[in-house]
Every structure is written in structure tokens, then in C-alpha cells.
Amino acid sequence: MNRLRTRFLVVGSGVAGLHTAWRASEKGNVLLLTKRSLFDSATSYAQGGIAAALGAGDSPELHRRDTLAAGAALCDATAVEVLVEEGPTRVRELQAAGARFDLEPTGRFRLGREAAHSRKRIVHAHGDQTGAEVARTLVSRVRRSRGIKVLEKARVLDLILHRGRCVGVRASVQGEATEIVADVTVLATGGGGQAYRYTTNPVVATGDGYAIAHRADVTLSDMEFVQFHPTALDTPENPLALISEAVRGEGATLVNDRGVRFMRKLHKLAELAPRDVVARAIVRQQRAGHNVFLDARKLSSTFARRFPGILALCRARGIDPRQDLIPVTPAAHYMMGGIVTDLCGRSDLERLYAVGEVSRTGVHGANRLASNSLLEGLVFAERVARDIVGIAELGAVPAPGKWRVPVLVDRGAAQVAADTIREIMWRDAGVIRTAAGLRSAQRQLREIERRLPVGATEELNLVQTAQLVVEGAIARKESRGGHYRSDFPRARSAWRGKHVEL
Ligand SMILES: Cc1cc2nc3c(=O)[nH]c(=O)nc-3n(C[C@H](O)[C@H](O)[C@H](O)COP(=O)(O)OP(=O)(O)OC[C@H]3O[C@@H](n4cnc5c(N)ncnc54)[C@H](O)[C@@H]3O)c2cc1C
């Protein structure tokens, strides 16, 4: 068993982890752990962009209003204020750090528009490859920072607790059992979309941070709020490729296999209605036996210029959006809930921080406004980095325990368990939920957890994350934001402003 010691330990290499590591390294040594490579993250996949009030006629106040409206009375007003006020500065800093965002000939940001934003405020790069540009920029900063040591193929298994504080983690570093002792541990492990059969999330998004924190009795909240992106490319892949909202923003419409443009009579914003409204409408079409398509044919030449990445991924699958309809389905995309933190990313376990999608800062409430999550990652990572430098060094910690990385004895059984979890979650805890479905999911997930083969540590995180979602969804007897129960199809005043803490 190896033991390492660091001042700051950052787990995860998405926007939140990379930014935290980069900024904290100016004040102390950082060890950055990531499960696969530095670029394996949801961040690298982000297409649409980063929302920030940078355009003429826009303001943090307008951005604040849109964010609160999407959050359906569950946002933390102060956290939202922090997000929208500090956001523009963080985006400009990222540009100064080398991010090549798309610009107008005047040098101003070329801004896009997305659903439920009252203004054009989406900063993007290379058309639709914003996340890759953010990751490239931050990875190059991290690589250039002398104070950061990076360990790839390093998967955190659990926290180490001592006298009610987090003093580091147990990890499998390239298969070797490794204990890392740190003055501060920052979980930036991203979301858990892999708990669903249809998801846009990369295979690393197995909810590790939620499960690891839950096992250590750290408070999580709002886990029932999962955002389903309405338009993933409907293919038999995992993850599904995303067709960004920005495509609808540019005028593409949704039609069923009879050519009916069904969103028009369901919402005044039609295809640009909030994501949950559009996702439900598509699922209802599917349940009625229809296939659903995005019709972007009228964008013709604009498509290639504005969405080169999406064009390439469609064409790789034999679809040319300039001539063909694009088959789409909703898919699990983002988890609004997570580890409850304050405005500096502190969890309720001393010396444990959480940032990015794994955290619940309160900026998203019941539903995330499109393109607010990269922004949240940047804004709160900066706050975490500024806060942790003030944390005193740890005193003595106990000698390392004797343990080994459990060996996965039956990979086939673990895969079957993961596939079953994903099916159950899609059917019973997906876009449209009921009490009966959720109860049945709860029973089945418990049984799966009980029977997991030895060494299935990632599947354990998946099934525990799934159970947290289901528990939250059972408790919340109403519909709000990303959580919809057909047995309680409306928001109820008794639940306004209330959170399910787990
Ligand atoms: C296809 C797609 C498109 C999107 N488009 C947008 C967009 O346009 N705008 C926007 O704002 N948001 C978008 N999002 C959401 C956004 O990308 C994510 O919410 C955000 O990038 C999360 O950043 P993060 O740093 O918290 O986590 P991630 O970027 O997911 O990074 C998590 C990191 O933690 C690592 N990790 C996980 N578990 C462990 C473990 N046990 N041990 C070690 N490492 C671990 C992972 O390998 C990864 O490196 C999109 C998401 C997807 C999937």
C-alpha cells in the first residue's frame, strides 16, 4: 500500500477540478486525481457554451431572473447572485488564459441564444466545441503549473475520516492501493448520468462523488432533480451524442413520424420551451408509438458554419442534417442535486469541499438553465481555491490501514448489474415518474446492491446514486422543474422552497 501526502487534493479533471487545481496551486501543492485521462470528463463534451451576461442589453440582473425562473422556486438566491455577478469576470479570465472563444469582427464575444434565456448570452468556441476548448485551456494551465502533480487512472474509492474530519482518500492508482492524506479534499467528480439507459454523459459519470460522500454521512440534497436533455441523437450507443439546444435556437423544429410539429400547441415558446417540458412531450410521443425527429433542413448552409461538430457526428452515423431528419430521444444529461455546500464549496464534513456538478450550491434549484453549469464550475472553483488556501495544515493522522483494491471477480455480472440499473432508472425514475414505479425501482435497486459481485466498486457507486435519486423522487410528492410525477402532475405550495436532504 502506498501513501502520499499533499496540501490540496482535487478529485476530477473537468472544469471544476482543473480550475480549482490551477488556482489553488498558486498557494500550495496540489495533487489532481482523475479516473481515466485528464480529458475524460463531461466538460470535454459540452457543446453549447457558457452563459454569462456579456452582451449589449444584457445584465447580471436579467441572467439572475432567468436562472431563478428555471429553478422553479428552489434556487438559493445568494448563490445565483454570486453566479451571475462573478460569471462574466471568470469567462474573460478564461479567455485571457488562452480560450479561443468565437468572436465578432469587432472583437466582442459572438453570443448564442438557448432555451429560457431572455437574451443572447451563450459564449461558445469553434461553433459547438466549447467544452473541448475549456478543457484544452485549463489542462494546458494545469500542465504548466509546477505546483500540480497529476495522477491519471487514479480512482478514488472512499474518504478517510479521522476525528470527524476528512483527512484524505483511499484510491486505486493504476490498480495500486494508495492512501492520500491531504489538508483539504475537493470532490469535483461530476455527475451520474450513467445511471440511466439513455444518457449524454461520458462513461466516467457514474456518480462516484455522491456515493462516496453519502457513505461518509455527508449531506446531499435535491437528488430527485435530474435534467433530461430533449434531443440526444437516437442511436444504440452509450453515451448518446447530443444535438445541442442551440440547433433549436437557430430555428430547427421537432416533428413526429407523421410530420406533426407537436410542440407548437404545447407551449408558447414551442421548441424553445424549458427542457423538461420538451423532454416530456417527446416521451409522450414515443409512448404513443411515434418516432421523433429534429428538422434542421432549413438551416442548410448555416449548419456547417455554426455546428461543425454536430454535423460531423451526424454524418459519421449516416445522417446529413442539411437534407435528412435527425432522429432524437431525451437522455439523462445533468444532475441538479448533490453534496450540499456553502458559497465557498464547503460541505458539512470538515475539510471536505465539493465543486461542479457533484455539488449542490443552490444555483440550479429544480432545473438548470442551459449553459449555467460550466459557469458554475468556473465561478465556484475560483471560490473554493480562494477558501482552501486559508485552511490550516492537518496535525498527525493515523497510520495507514491495511487494505487492498478489491479485485472484480465477475466482470460479466457487474456489467449485467449496471445495465439493469440503467434500464430500471430509465423506466421508473426517468422523465415521467409514479409512486408505484419508484417503489418498484427502490426494491430492485436494493436487491442489486445486495448481490453485486465482489470488487464492483464503480457499480456500487452507480446503484447508490440511483437509490439517492429514487429516494428523493419518492419523498417529493409533486412535480417541479426536472422532477415530474404523473400522480402529482403539478407543483404544490407545501413543497415550495423545501429540499429533500439525504
Ligand atoms: C454532452 C454534454 C453537453 C453539455 N453541454 C453543456 C454546455 O453547453 N454548457 C454547459 O454549461 N454545460 C453543458 N453540459 C454540462 C457540463 O458539461 C457539466 O455539468 C460540467 O462540465 C461538469 O463539470 P465538472 O467539472 O463538475 O465534472 P466533469 O466535467 O464531469 O468532470 C468530472 C471528473 O471527475 C472524474 N472522476 C469521477 N469520479 C472519479 C473518481 N472516483 N476518482 C477520480 N476521478 C473521478 C472524471 O473522470 C472527470 O474527470 C454538457 C454535458 C454533456 C454531457
**Nearest-angstrom radius of gyration?**
22 Å
What is the averaged pLDDT score? Answer: 96
Straight-line distance between termini: 33 Å
Largest sheet: 7 strands, mixed
How many strands appear in the DSSP assignment? 17
Shape: globular
Structural class: alpha/beta
Helix proportion range = 25-40%
Total of DSSP H or I helical runs spanning 4+ residues: 14
Question: Are any ligands bound, and if so which?
Answer: flavin-adenine dinucleotide
Strand proportion, as a percent range, falls in: 15-25%
Low-pLDDT parts are: none
Write the layout of secondary structure elements.
Layout (H helix, E strand, L loop, with lengths): L1 E10 L3 H10 L5 E4 L8 H4 L4 E2 L8 H12 L5 H20 L14 E2 L9 E2 L6 H15 L3 E4 L2 E9 L2 E9 L2 E12 L20 H8 L4 E2 L4 E8 L11 H5 L3 E4 L18 H13 L4 E4 L4 H7 L1 H8 L10 E10 L2 E3 L11 E3 L4 E2 L11 H17 L22 H18 L6 H17 L5 H19 L27
Parallel strand pairs: 1-2, 1-9, 2-6, 9-16, 15-17
Antiparallel strand pairs: 3-5, 4-5, 7-8, 8-9, 10-15, 11-14, 12-13, 13-14
